[in-house]
Amino acid sequence: MHIPRSSAVSNPRSVERLVTGQATQDGAGVKLTRVLTQPLQHRLDPFLMLDAFGSDQPGDYIAGFPDHPHRGFETVTYMIAGRMRHRDSAGHEGLLTNGGVQWMTAGRGVIHSEMPEQEEGVMEGFQLWLNLPAQRKMIPAWYRDIPAPEIPVAQVDGVRVHVIAGQALGVTGAMQREVTEPLYLDIHLRPGASFSQALPESHNAFVYVYRGALDIGGSPVPAQRMAILTNTAGSDGVVLQAGELPTRALLIAGRPLKEPIAQYGPFVMNTRAELMQAVEDFQAGRLA
Ligand code: FE2
Q1: Which band of pLDDT confidence, cut at 50, 70 and 90, is reported for residue 4?
Q2: How far apart are CA 288 and CA 87, in angstroms?
Q3: For the residues 232-257, what does the mean pLDDT come to?
Q4: Is the pLDDT assigned to residue 5 strictly greater than 90?
Q5: Is 46:275 a contact under the CB 8 Å cutoff?
Q6: Rounded to 5 degrees, what are φ and ψ at 103?
Q7: 255: helix, strand or coil
Q8: Would you state the pLDDT for residue 8?
Q9: Alpha carbon of 277 to ligand 1 centroid (Å)
Q10: pTM tops 0.90, yes or no
Q11: Residue 1's beta-bridge partner residues?
């Protein structure tokens, strides 16, 4: 059996800074940690937000996210544990369960709900917001439910990689996107294992450790921290080294759009006038 090796990285990136998420509430009162916040949207362009949620207390998640609109970007919801039902104004419906992903392109607009379909137990996962280029912000809404068995897994000594988007270890992920070229990996490392991933130097990249701990280029990265990676000139990737604990981390990267970002809540456009139009369209029932 051929076991692929991690791609060789000779000039790895290092950690520019560590970020601790902010505890907050969203939806009808779901407790979550906002890891990628609005002040980091330019530094981590094309990514607009990363929320981490994880609790075994139903009171933290049971209220869910009742009907709300989006316009101008994509949401990627990754469920580690739990069950979440989504419904939208176009009549689509889906159930997100352990290890599954929902990739939704809000485009010109959608109104949807995201509600827990469990009354007890652990609910854990992430929601990432990925920006759309200006010329695609008003495309029709679209979504895809990707159950866990449809997410390709790449393996190398002591490392399992769930390739949600982009490519790793020669394995093509479940989703590919032009323009922003997102890479979204969920990497599980045994104690002491290491993993290398090629990254174009111009792509913005970050790592969020959600179990165990990593060393990246000599910098320790503990659990529940986001490490923003440097865009070092001449760098060709990143090397993640697990410590003494089994470790799990998200590695997310993409090509920056370098366009103006105007956000008002669930609408992300390029100008204030476009935001006002989004609010007007929502109030007039034109997002449904
Ligand atoms: Fe939403």
Answers
A1: low
A2: 12
A3: 97
A4: no
A5: no
A6: -110, 115
A7: coil
A8: 85
A9: 19
A10: yes
A11: none
Say what percent of the chain tops pLDDT 70: 98
pLDDT of 7 above 80 = no
Distance 129 CA to ligand 1 centre (A): 10
Q: Report CA(206)–ligand 1 centroid distance (Å).
A: 23
Strand partners, 161: 154, 187
Three-class DSSP category at 174: coil
pLDDT band at 288 (very low <50, low <70, confident <90, very high): confident
Q: How far is the CA of 75 from the centre of ligand 1 (A)?
A: 7
Distance from the alpha carbon of residue 65 to the mean position of ligand 1, in angstroms: 7
> What is the arithmetic mean of pLDDT over 67-80?
97
User: Which domains can be identified in the chain, with CATH numbers?
Assistant: 15-283 (2.60.120.10)
State in Å: Cα 114 to ligand 1 middle. 7
**Distance between Cα 87 and ligand 1 center (Å):** 10
